[in-house]
Amino acid sequence: MQFETLFTLVGYIIYTVMAIVALWGAFCVILVWRRVSTTRFRNEQEQDAFMNELEPLLRTRAYENASALCDDDSRALPQLAMFAIENRDMGPQRVERQLVERFQLDVLSDIEHRLSWVSTVIKSAPMIGLLGTVIGMMGAFANLSTGSKVDTGKMAEDIMFALITTALGLMVAVPLLLCREGIALQIRKMEDLVATGMTRLMEMLR
């Protein structure tokens, strides 16, 4: 009876931990997705529209108006453009180097840090499910080792618990894995767009 009580308690703990891990993973995915969405332009046409609005201001050296235009936009490229405009006296090569560093530190590092939590959940969920599998099989074998009449109902419950925890671990990990890959694709698109935008920006400032 003591073993049965212990296995039952451990089962509740595993279910609780799995639920917490799943909620945390979903929360992190939402945070990262929102961060990426608010940081990048949705497509090249939208970015080109911003650059076309910025270009005449830089060509006519209306730097205050250009800074005001960038300041009103919280996305990565406008903020980088505002930094380049405010520090244009440093020289093109130094400004371009500073832009790359700021993009890496202020944008990509923050996103990658949040995305690392999603990766942690993806790795942890199957391991927690595997722990449940081991616990369930231990309960089933404990029932067999009693030496008395085997309780087939209890044994079936233990095996079912083992299978359920394994399935839950995969059900948590697989959707999060797909979400992470989708976010990674959006990040790569953002990097390409920002690289194109920074090249055009430096040509304007020269």
TrEMBL record:
<dbReference type="InterPro" id="IPR002898">
    <property type="entry name" value="MotA_ExbB_proton_chnl"/>
</dbReference>
<keyword id="KW-1003">Cell membrane</keyword>
<feature type="transmembrane region" description="Helical">
    <location>
        <begin position="124"/>
        <end position="144"/>
    </location>
</feature>
<feature type="transmembrane region" description="Helical">
    <location>
        <begin position="159"/>
        <end position="179"/>
    </location>
</feature>
<dbReference type="InterPro" id="IPR050790">
    <property type="entry name" value="ExbB/TolQ_transport"/>
</dbReference>
<dbReference type="GO" id="GO:0017038">
    <property type="term" value="P:protein import"/>
</dbReference>
<dbReference type="GO" id="GO:0005886">
    <property type="term" value="C:plasma membrane"/>
</dbReference>
<keyword id="KW-0812">Transmembrane</keyword>
<keyword id="KW-0813">Transport</keyword>
<feature type="transmembrane region" description="Helical">
    <location>
        <begin position="12"/>
        <end position="33"/>
    </location>
</feature>
<dbReference type="Pfam" id="PF01618">
    <property type="entry name" value="MotA_ExbB"/>
</dbReference>
<keyword id="KW-0472">Membrane</keyword>
<keyword id="KW-1133">Transmembrane helix</keyword>
<protein>
    <submittedName>
        <fullName>Colicin uptake protein TolQ</fullName>
    </submittedName>
</protein>
<keyword id="KW-0653">Protein transport</keyword>
<feature type="domain" description="MotA/TolQ/ExbB proton channel">
    <location>
        <begin position="91"/>
        <end position="190"/>
    </location>
</feature>
<comment type="similarity">
    <text>Belongs to the exbB/tolQ family.</text>
</comment>
